Structure formats: structure tokens, C-alpha cells
Amino acid sequence: MAKKKIQNLKDNISKMNERLRKMGVVRFLSLGYLITITLGTILLMLPFATKEASKVVINNVGDWFNLLLNTILTATSATCVTGLVSFDTLDHWTMFGQIVIIVLIQIGGLGFMTIITLIFSIFGRKINLFDRTVLMQSAGSYSISEVVTLLRTILIGTFLIEGLGATLLYLRLKFGYGFSDGQAIYYGIFHAISAFCNAGFDLFGHFSSLTSFVADPAINFIIAGLIMLGGLGFIVWLDLITSKFRWRNLELHTKIIIVFNTILFIVSGLFYLLFEYNSPSMSGMNFFEKLLASFFMGITPRTAGFNTIDLTLLTPSSKLFTVILMFIGGAPGSTAGGIKITTIIVILANLFSLAKNHEDIHLFKRRVSGKLVRQSSALFISYLLIVLLSTITICAVEANFNVVVKFEDVLFEVVSGIGTVGLGMLEVVNLTVFTRIVLILLMYIGRIGAFTLFAVFFSEESDSIIKLPEGNLLVG
Q1: What is the pLDDT averaged over residues 354-374?
Q2: 89 CB-side CA count, 13 A
Q3: Which of 309, 106, 348 is nearest to 210 (CA)?
Q4: What's the CA gap between 301 and 314, in Å, rounded?
Q5: Which pTM does this prediction carry?
Q6: Distance (Å, rounded) from C-alpha 109 to C-alpha 137?
Q7: Where are the beta strands (DSSP E) in 294-453?
Q8: pLDDT > 60? residue 61
Q9: What is the mean pLDDT of residues 145-150?
């Protein structure tokens, strides 16, 4: 009888695997994040996940639905490593709830398929071709053959970096701020994972983020370092290791990420220093503190979600510049969101190439394929359309419900959501049900990618070998 049950279980697992293969990689990835969000929501809805003082009084179905929606938003924000929240993480959630959130962040940062593959490996299950294909899509790998090596790099690198970050934060919080051993260890681990995964969740209370540490170089540099390492992309790590950090041996992708990320960090910091030097956001700071705050602000909008200055006091120039940085995002295959730095570089390179009347695009003595140019342009337009439609719709709905919101604040929130950043100008809990649902969808789209979403509904067989005749068309 026992053997029959075991055989039936194996048959059911085999059937399930076959269904997953028929589903396709794209749909599998989309479903995986959806299941993770659902499980996270269920755990966060448990009574002991919320502190007694923060429990919402349920008088009717509307109250229950509102609580459920805010919990879904939190679970989505954690899984999609964003940081937009309805409830303050310290004030609302118990330690159990906070641990659920940080586990969701870790799963979302590494990619749920990485976690599943790790569990399969522990129990001796071989990584088949379908698993490798899903991992390649999830982690941003070039080929199926190097997926296992990339997986090992992801896991070892992540835990080493997060461990180092947690240790440094522990030392600073314990000896610099008098935290107890237990609290310093807990806070160190939580914020190291949150920073490396570019999530932006914090435990400092009252939605304050890192504003208490604006003048602390140690906290700023530790968190900023974790953000930058997480935003590089796992494929960049592997390339740096295999090339032994020799510039000439690096892939074009890695060179673009390193060079233009560095330029963008420096330029962004200088812009914030210029825009905010005499603004209320930096009032009372000396030059070094303003420089430190500007440096941190130059890094965090690239999808980190932490802030050391009050965002509501930013000048209009800084707000718009932050929106641009959030839209760009970090590197493909990383914990960062946005349209990605490589996308914007390809688009700009194409612009300059057309201006010079060059047929090909060249970057670091390499030619960029026409397919990549089309993909980059389509991705840019897709995100731009989603942002514009979401912003217009939210402004209209909030106005109809007599909720006073500024257009620039709504735009900021929308881009923060789809860019999986987490910086916010609005009190999410006070927004309408519709707007919160839109923000949930934006975070989900931002994590799985606009192309992935479109592929779920519109994917079909590749083009036929029969080509239609070209037509004449004027543009520009």
C-alpha cells in the first residue's frame, strides 16, 4: 500500500512537471511570483503577524477588504523588492510579520526560481533542461550551459555580501548607537538583506527610513555599497570572476554596466548637491553632510527605496530628476528594477548613430544588433505608456473621490512602483482602493518585466519565413 502511494505521488509530480513545461517559461515565472505574493499575504494576515496596538478594527466587510488590500500591497512590495507600504514595518508588524517580509524580500531579490532550484539540489533532484531555461530567463544569463555556475555565484555571493553588510551594520549600531547585541544583530541582518535586494524596507519607525543617519558616513556607505552591489546584476559578478577582473576580457554588457553606472552615480550626486544645496531638505547641514546626503540620493533612486532626507521637501528639479533615475533603474538580471541602464544606453547610442548617419551602433568596439535596438525601444515605449496611463487614471479617480493629490506626486509614486523603487510622496494608506490596486499591479509588472507580462497574454509562434513587401513611410 505504501509503495502504491509513493508511486501515485511520483506520478502526480511528473504530471505537474509536464503541465509546467507546457505552460512555458514566461508564464511559469509570472505564476511563481504570484504564488509567493499569495503565500506572503496569507502569513501576514495571521493575527500574530500584527502588533496588538496596530490591529485594525473590523466592523464590516469593507474594513476587512481594506485590511486585505493593504496586506497584499505589503506582500507584493516585499516580493517585488519595492518598499511602497501602507503600514510602517516597525510600528505595525510583529517580529513574525517582519521575518515574513524579509523572507519575501530575499526570495524576490534572488528570484523565486533560484530558491526552488536550491531546495531541489539539497534533496538531490537534478536540474533539468526546463529548470535551466527558467533560471536563465530569471537570472539574466546568456546561455543554458552556464546557468548552474551562475546559480552558485548568486547564492555564494549574495550570502557573503549580505553577511558582511550585516556584520558592519551590527558593529555600527551596537558601538555607535548603543543597540543591544540581539537588536543590533537583528537590525543588521534585516537592513543588509533589504539594501542588497534594493527593497527599501526599514525598522526605524514612523516611515522615517534612514533620515536619522543622514550625517553618519558609516551607515550611508554600508547601505549604499550594498545597494550598488545588488544593482550590478548577477551576470556581471560571474563575468568579473571568470575574466579575473581584466578589462579586455569583459563582456560588452559588463563594461556598459560598470562605466555608465559609475558615471550616473557621480553625475546624480552632483546634480542633487546643486539642486538641494540651499533648499529646506538640507537646512542645518554643513558642506560635508550635504555632500553625503547628495551622494546617497544619487544612488538610492536607482531602485533602492531608502532616503536620508525628507523627500517632500525636494525642489521640483530634484523631484523630476528622481523620477528619471527611478525610470532608468539598475542592471538587467539584478535586484534592481526600471527599464535598466543598458536599455537607455542602447537608445542613446542609436540616437547618436542616426544623427551621424551611421548604419551600425558601436559600443566599446562592439556592434550592437538591430534586434537589441528594437527591444530597447519597445521596452522604453512600453514602460512610458504604462506610466502615463496609470498617472492619468489615478489623478482622475482620486479627484472624483475628492482626494487632493498633486500630479507630480502621483507621477512620482507610479514610477516608483513600476521601477520597484519604493520612494514615495503620498500616504499610500489614504489612497483609494483603485489607486492601491494599480500600485500593486505596477510593482508586479516592474518585477516580472513588461515584456514578460505581454508575452503571457500575446505570445505566439515566431514570424513566418514569408516576408511582406516593404512600404514607404515618413518619420521625424
Answers
A1: 85
A2: 26
A3: 309
A4: 13
A5: 0.87
A6: 14
A7: 361-363, 366-368
A8: yes
A9: 64
